[in-house]
Write a structure and sequence with these properties.
Chains: A mainly alpha, B mainly alpha, C mainly alpha
Radius of gyration of chain C: 18 Å
Structural class of chain A: mainly alpha
Number of domains of chain C: 1
Strand content of chain C: under 5%
Oligomer: heterotrimer
CATH architecture of chain C: Orthogonal Bundle
Largest sheet of chain C: none
Shape of chain C: elongated
Number of helices of chain C: 3
Order of helices and strands of chain C: HHH
Largest interface: A-C, 103 and 80 residues
Shape of chain A: extended
Distance between the termini of chain C: 59 Å
Number of strands of chain C: 0
CATH class of one domain in chain A: Mainly Alpha
Distance between the termini of chain A: 90 Å
CATH architecture of one domain in chain A: Up-down Bundle
CATH topology of chain C: Helix Hairpins
Strand content of chain A: under 5%
Order of helices and strands of chain A: HHHHHHH
CATH class of chain C: Mainly Alpha
C-alpha cells in the first residue's frame, strides 16, 4: 500500500477552504443555539454544530474522536436533551417565563466577553508557542490519508488512541469511569422514582416543619 | 531618720488614746449619753499627761555619726510598721511636733471640758465627742508622722473631721453648705500636697522626712520651687490663706467649741506646721519663700480689713484667725521659723480664749451672735468680759501680754530676712487688728443692752420668719436652758477652762523674752537650720516695737472714738444702723472672692458637667458606639446586595473571575 | 514528523475562543435552563477543538485522550444537570431559572 505522508508538505488549498466553511457553520449554529426561541430549535442548531465539529476534527487528523463526537454527543446527549424537553413540555405551562430579574445584565456580560476576546487575541499575537520537549508519545509513524484512517501506526487511529489511553493515561481513564458511576447514581437519586420514599419523605417534611416552628418560638421568647 | 530610734510606748499611747475615745463614743454613744463627755475628756487628759511625760524624749539630742554628714538627731523616733521595702511608717516627736502636740492635747483638753457644758442637752452629744476625739487623733497623726505619706493621711483625716464638725447640726442647710465648701477647698489643697510628694519621691526615692531632706540636693531649682509651691497650695487651703480662704468664715456654722479647737488653735495651723517641718526645702528656694511670705502678709492685711466690717462675733474672730495665721505663714515663710511657731503658740491660747469667751456670751444670750444686739454685757457677764478683754489685749500685742512678744518677732523677722514691704504690711495690719478687736469689745460689752431693739432698727436684714424659726429650732439645743432669754452666768464646766486659759494668754509670751537666749530659742536649738543673715536691717528691734505700739494705740483710739465715748455709747443704735447701711459693698462681699470662685470654678464645672452629660456622652461617645453598629449593618446590607439568589448573577461572577484570570495570563504570560 | 495545519494555529485559537464565549453569552443571557445547559455544551466543545488542534500541531496523543475524557465528563455532567432541571421544574409554574431564588439573602 502506498502511504502518502504529509511530512513537510503544505496541505492543499482544499483543506483551507474546508476550515473556513466549517468555521462559519460552527459560529452560525452556535449563535442559533443561544438565540432560538424554543428549546427544540436550539437542539437542532446544536446538532448542526456537533456535525460541523466532527468534520473539523477530521481535518485535524482526529478521526476516532470525530466518530466519538457523533456517537456520544449527537447520538446520546442531544437525545437526552430531547427527552427532557418532552418531559417538561407536558408540564403545567410549557416553557413560559417569569419576569426578568436581571434585566441589565446584557451590557456587562457583553463587555466581559469582548474583554476576554481581546485578551485572547492579544495573547495569541504576543505569546510565542513553544514546542514542548516531548514531541510525540504515540507510536505513530505516519499520518493518515483519508482512506486508511483505522490502521495502526497512523496518528489519530483507534489503535493509536487505544494504546495511549490504556497505557500512559490509565489513571485518568479509571477515574473517569468512577465519575460516570457517580453520575448514574446521582441521576437515579435525583430524578428517580420517589414513591417508595413517600412515607419517609412525609415524615421528614413534618420533622422539618416542627423544627422550624420551635426555632421561631424560641426566638420570640 | 530624724530623731533617736527607740521604743516609746508613751508616744504611741498618746497618739492612739483619742482614737480609742472616738471609737467608744461612736459605737456606744446611745448607751453612754452624758458619760461620753467624761470619757472623751479623760482620753484627752490622758493624752496631755503623756505628752508632758514624753517631754524628755522629745527634746533629747544626740550627735550623729561622724561618718555621716554631721546631723544632730533631735527628739524621739518610734518605728511603727514597714509599708513597702524601704518605706517605714513611724512617729517622730521632736521639738516642733512636741509643741504642736502640747497645744493639741492641752488646749484640746480644756475645750473638751468646756464642750461638756456648752453642748449639754444636745441631741447628738456623744457623736460630738466622738468627732472631737477623732479630730484630735487625726491632728496628732499629722504632726507625729515621720514621713510625708503619714502627714498626708493625717491631713486628709483632719479635713474629714472638720467636715463632720462644721456640719454637725446637719439639719441646717447653711451648715451643710459650709461643710461641703470647706471640704472641697481642702481637697484642692490635698492635690497640691500629693503633687509635691510625687515630685519629691521622683527625685529622692524616699518618703521619710530625714531621707528626703538629706537628698534634697537632688532636686534642681525648678523642681524645688515646684515642690514648695505645691506644698504651699496645700498649706494655703488648710490654713485659709488667699485665695483659698473663703471656707473659714463659713466654717463658723459649727458649734463654738469646734471653732475654738479646729478653726483657731489647731487645724488651721497645719499649714504653718507643714512649712516649718519642710524648712530645709524652703531654705533653699528664695523664690518660694518670697511667695509664701507675701501671701501670708496679704492674708493678714485682708483678714484685718474684712474683720472691721463684720457683725457676727464669730465671724470677727474667724477673720482675725485668718489674719493671725497670715502672720504665722509670713513668719515661717521668710525664714523666721521660731517667730512663726511662737506666734502659733501664743495665738492658740488667746484665740481659744476669745472663742470660748464668745461661746459664753452666745450660750448666755440663747444663740444670739450678732454684736449689734449685744451691748452692756460688761455688767451682766463680768467673767466673760474680763476673759475677752485679756484675750483682746493679747491679740493686739499690748506689751506684757503673750501676743506682744510673738507678733514682734514675726514682724521683725520679716525685716531681718530682707523683706521690707512685708515688714510694713505687718506693722499696718497690727494697727488694724487693734482697731477691729477693740471695736468688737466695745460694741459687745459697752453701753446699754440692745437685745430688745428690733433688728431693723439696728440695720440688720430682717430674716424671713419661717426660715428663722426652723433654723433656730433645728440642730440647736433640744432643751433650752431655763430662762435663757436673759443673760445669766455660765456653769463651772464652761468657766473653768476659760479661767485656766487666762494664765498662758498672759504669760506664754515671756518664754520668748531674751531674744536668742530665751527659753524658746533654746528649746528649738538645732531644729531649724539657721541661715546667716547677710545684712543688718536698718531699723532695730526696739524701734520696731515702738512703731507697732504707736499704731496699736492709734487703732485703739479710733475704736474708742467710734464706739467707746460717752456720746457714742448713748447713740449706739443710730450709729450702728448707719454703719450697717453704709458698709461698702466690697467689704460686705469680702472683696468678691467668693463670687470670683463661683464664676471661675463652680460655673465652669457645672458647664463642663452639662456639656459632658448632655452632649458629649449621648452624642459623641454613644454616637460612636451607635456608629459602629450602623456601619456594621451597612456593611452587611452591602454584602447582602450580592446575595441575589439568582443563578445567572452567580454565573456572571464566576465568568468575571475566569476572565480576570485569563486576562492576567494573557498579559503577563504563563511563565 | 511535524504537524502542519491547514491554517495557522492562531485561527483555531480564535475560533475556539469565539465559540466558547458564545456559550458564555448563552449562559448569562438566557433564562431557560435547558438552553443554559446547551450553551455549556458549546463551551465544552470549544475546548475540545483547541485540544485537538494542538494535538495535531505537536503530534501528541495526549490531546486526543484528554478530549475523549472531556466528552465523557461532559456527558455525565449533562445527565446530572438535566436530572436536576427535571426535579426542580417538574411541578414548577415557569421553567425559568430566575424563579429558583431560595438562596436569596
Amino acid at each position: 500500500m502506498a502511504w502518502r505522508d504529509f511530512e513537510n508538505a503544505a496541505p492543499g488549498a482544499g483543506w483551507m477552504i474546508a476550515f473556513w466553511i466549517l468555521a462559519i457553520v460552527l459560529i452560525a449554529s452556535a449563535m442559533w443555539v443561544i438565540s432560538a426561541s424554543k428549546p427544540v430549535y436550539s437542539v437542532v442548531g446544536l446538532l448542526v454544530h456537533f456535525t460541523a465539529l466532527a468534520f473539523m476534527f477530521i481535518t485535524l487528523s482526529a478521526e476516532f474522536l470525530a466518530a466519538i463526537q457523533i456517537i456520544v454527543y449527537s447520538g446520546a446527549i442531544l437525545v437526552l436533551f430531547l427527552f427532557v424537553i418532552a418531559l417538561l413540555s407536558s408540564g403545567v405551562a410549557p416553557f413560559s417565563a417569569g419576569p426578568n430579574r436581571l434585566p441589565k445584565i446584557g451590557i456587562p456580560a457583553v463587555a466581559l466577553i469582548l474583554i476576554a476576546l481581546g485578551a485572547t487575541v492579544y495573547a495569541t499575537a504576543h505569546v510565542s508557542l513553544q514546542t514542548p520537549a516531548v514531541i510525540s508519545t504515540s507510536g505513530a509513524r505516519m499520518l493518515s490519508t483519508v482512506g486508511f484512517a483505522g490502521e495502526a501506526d497512523v496518528f489519530g487511529s483507534v489503535a493509536d488512541f487505544g494504546k495511549a489511553l490504556f497505557t500512559v493515561h490509565l489513571l485518568p481513564f479509571e477515574i473517569t469511569a468512577f465519575i460516570l458511576m457517580v453520575a448514574v447514581i446521582g441521576v437515579i437519586l435525583l430524578a428517580g422514582d420517589q414513591t417508595p420514599y413517600v412515607a419517609s419523605r412525609k415524615r421528614a417534611v413534618a420533622v422539618q416543619r416542627e423544627l422550624r416552628e420551635a426555632i421561631l418560638r424560641g426566638g420570640e421568647e | 531618720m530624724l530623731g533617736v530610734d527607740g521604743s516609746y510606748p508613751l508616744i504611741v499611747a498618746l497618739w492612739l488614746l483619742p482614737l480609742a475615745g472616738a471609737i467608744l463614743c461612736w459605737v456606744f454613744g446611745p448607751q453612754l449619753k452624758q458619760v461620753a463627755g467624761w470619757l472623751a475628756c479623760t482620753a484627752m487628759g490622758a493624752s496631755f499627761v503623756l505628752t508632758l511625760l514624753s517631754w524628755q524624749a522629745g527634746t533629747q539630742t544626740r550627735v550623729g555619726d561622724s561618718n555621716v554628714a554631721a546631723t544632730n538627731l533631735l527628739g524621739a523616733h518610734q518605728a511603727l510598721f514597714s509599708w513597702l521595702p524601704g518605706f517605714d511608717f513611724g512617729l517622730l516627736l521632736d521639738p516642733l511636733s512636741l509643741i504642736w502636740a502640747f497645744i493639741i492635747t492641752g488646749v484640746g483638753f480644756l475645750i473638751h471640758v468646756y464642750s461638756m457644758g456648752y453642748m449639754y442637752g444636745d441631741r447628738a452629744y456623744a457623736r460630738f465627742f466622738a468627732y472631737m476625739n477623732f479630730f484630735v487623733f487625726a491632728m496628732l497623726t499629722l504632726v507625729l508622722s515621720d514621713n510625708f505619706v503619714g502627714l498626708l493621711v493625717g491631713w486628709g483625716l483632719v479635713g474629714l473631721a472638720s467636715y463632720f464638725l462644721i456640719g454637725f447640726w446637719f439639719e441646717r442647710p447653711s451648715a451643710v453648705a459650709a461643710a461641703r465648701k470647706a471640704f472641697v477647698i481642702n481637697v484642692a489643697g490635698d492635690v497640691g500636697i500629693m503633687l509635691a510628694i510625687f515630685i519629691l519621691f521622683a527625685y529622692t526615692r524616699s518618703l521619710g522626712f530625714g531621707d528626703v531632706f538629706a537628698n534634697a540636693g537632688a532636686l534642681g531649682t525648678t523642681a524645688l520651687l515646684a515642690v514648695c509651691v505645691c506644698l504651699f497650695i496645700g498649706a494655703a487651703a488648710k490654713s485659709a490663706q488667699i485665695p483659698l480662704h473663703t471656707w473659714l468664715p463659713d466654717a463658723m456654722e459649727g458649734p463654738t467649741p469646734v471653732s475654738a479647737l479646729i478653726h483657731a488653735a489647731t487645724m488651721v495651723t497645719a499649714g504653718v506646721y507643714l512649712v516649718a517641718r519642710c524648712a530645709p526645702l524652703w531654705s533653699q528656694s528664695p523664690k518660694a519663700q518670697l511667695l509664701v511670705g507675701t501671701i501670708g502678709a496679704l492674708t493678714a492685711l485682708m483678714g484685718a480689713i474684712l474683720g472691721t466690717a463684720q457683725w457676727d462675733i464669730k465671724r470677727i474672730l474667724a477673720y482675725s484667725t485668718m489674719s493671725q495665721i497670715g502672720y504665722m505663714i509670713m513668719g515661717v515663710g521668710v525664714g523666721a521659723y521660731e517667730g512663726g511657731v511662737a506666734h502659733f503658740f501664743t495665738h492658740a491660747f488667746f484665740k481659744a480664749q476669745l472663742f470660748l469667751g464668745s461661746g459664753l456670751i452666745i450660750h448666755a444670750l440663747a444663740n444670739e451672735q450678732d454684736v449689734r444686739r449685744m451691748g452692756g454685757l460688761a455688767k451682766k457677764l463680768p467673767f466673760a468680759f474680763w476673759a475677752m478683754t485679756i484675750g483682746v489685749l493679747a491679740i493686739c500685742g499690748i506689751p506684757g501680754f503673750s501676743g506682744f512678744f510673738s507678733k514682734d518677732q514675726v514682724i521683725y523677722g520679716a525685716l531681718q530676712h530682707g523683706h521690707p514691704w512685708l515688714y510694713a504690711i505687718g506693722i499696718i495690719t497690727a494697727g488694724i487688728t487693734a482697731y477691729y478687736m477693740f471695736r468688737m469689745l466695745l460694741v459687745t460689752f459697752a453701753g446699754e443692752y440692745r437685745g430688745n431693739v428690733a433688728p431693723g432698727d439696728l440695720g440688720m436684714s430682717v430674716p424671713k420668719s419661717a426660715d428663722a424659726e426652723t433654723e433656730a429650732a433645728a440642730g440647736t439645743q433640744a432643751e433650752p436652758h431655763v430662762g435663757d432669754t436673759h443673760a445669766h452666768a455660765p456653769g463651772w464646766l464652761m468657766a473653768v477652762p476659760v479661767g485656766i486659759l487666762i494664765v498662758p494668754t498672759v504669760l506664754a509670751g515671756w518664754l520668748l523674752f531674751g531674744g536668742e537666749h530665751s527659753a524658746w530659742a533654746q528649746f528649738f536649738a538645732g531644729q531649724f537650720t539657721v541661715s546667716v543673715l547677710q545684712n543688718i536691717p536698718p531699723i532695730s528691734e526696739g524701734i520696731t516695737t515702738l512703731i507697732v505700739l504707736v499704731l496699736v494705740i492709734a487703732g485703739i483710739a479710733i475704736a474708742w472714738i467710734r464706739y467707746g465715748t460717752e456720746a457714742a455709747r448713748s447713740n449706739a443704735v443710730v450709729r450702728l444702723r448707719d454703719e450697717s447701711v453704709r458698709m461698702p459693698g466690697v467689704l460686705v462681699h469680702a472683696f468678691y472672692v467668693d463670687a470670683a470662685i463661683d464664676v471661675l470654678f463652680v460655673r465652669t464645672s457645672k458647664f463642663l458637667g452639662a456639656a459632658f452629660g448632655e452632649f458629649l456622652d449621648p452624642q459623641v461617645i454613644d454616637g460612636a458606639v451607635r456608629g459602629a453598629v450602623t456601619s456594621a449593618s451597612l456593611l452587611g446590607s452591602l454584602v447582602r446586595w450580592l446575595q441575589t439568589g439568582l443563578v445567572r448573577a452567580y454565573a456572571f461572577i464566576l465568568v468575571l473571575g475566569a476572565v480576570c484570570l485569563l486576562a492576567y495570563y494573557a498579559i503577563v504570560g504563563a511563565h | 514528523m511535524s504537524g502542519v495545519l491547514p491554517v495557522a494555529i492562531a485561527n483555531y485559537i480564535s475560533l475556539s475562543a469565539i465559540i466558547f464565549f458564545i456559550g458564555v453569552a448563552g449562559v448569562l443571557l438566557r433564562r431557560n435552563p435547558l438552553i443554559m445547559l446547551m450553551s455549556i455544551e458549546l463551551m465544552w466543545n470549544a475546548a475540545n477543538l483547541l485540544f485537538l488542534a494542538f494535538a495535531r500541531v505537536w503530534l501528541n496523543n495526549a490531546g486526543h485522550v484528554f478530549a475523549f475524557l472531556v466528552i465523557t465528563v461532559a456527558a455525565a455532567e449533562a445527565a446530572i444537570g438535566l436530572a436536576i432541571v427535571v426535579t426542580v421544574f417538574r411541578s414548577a409554574q415557569n421553567v425559568d431559572v430566575d424563579e429558583v431564588r431560595t438562596l436569596h439573602g
